[in-house]
């Protein structure tokens, strides 16, 4: 029979082996570019997501965008706090075009009072979805993986989508133009360079 000390040691050994096996299994299911240490539960932490990091989805957002937001938030490739669903901010109106009389025999090229583009201050889309991949993973397939996840989520909800590009992203920016909304999957560099001010404005709205 095992002594009390031997039994305790055997129990500890079995627990250690089980933990190591679980860790190896978790690592084997992760993409090669994801750091396993980011995905394994840390001591004293909960597996539940931190809801304080979630940017709230507007109540009037379509159901398919709410589902897309939830899907993207679960992605291991994204910075949780970067996932945003919002209406595009209104664009400032520029100065009126200078008046210009028609020229030439055919009287072309004139600009008349009140002539111009009307109601384009809200941009091309009714909704914008923004998500940033973890720094350093943009060149290792993370952007393409998130795009596939987004397309699968939208396709499952019967949303029309543009043809899927087979090209790998080398500029840190991929976009899905889905008609009345657009999904941007970007690197940190692209987000800070092109969307920095807009993202902060969206967070305050």
UniProtKB/TrEMBL annotation:
Residues 83-92 have a biased composition (Polar residues). Residues 83-115 are annotated as: Disordered. It comes from the Eukaryota. This is Uncharacterized protein. It comes from Pterulicium gracile.
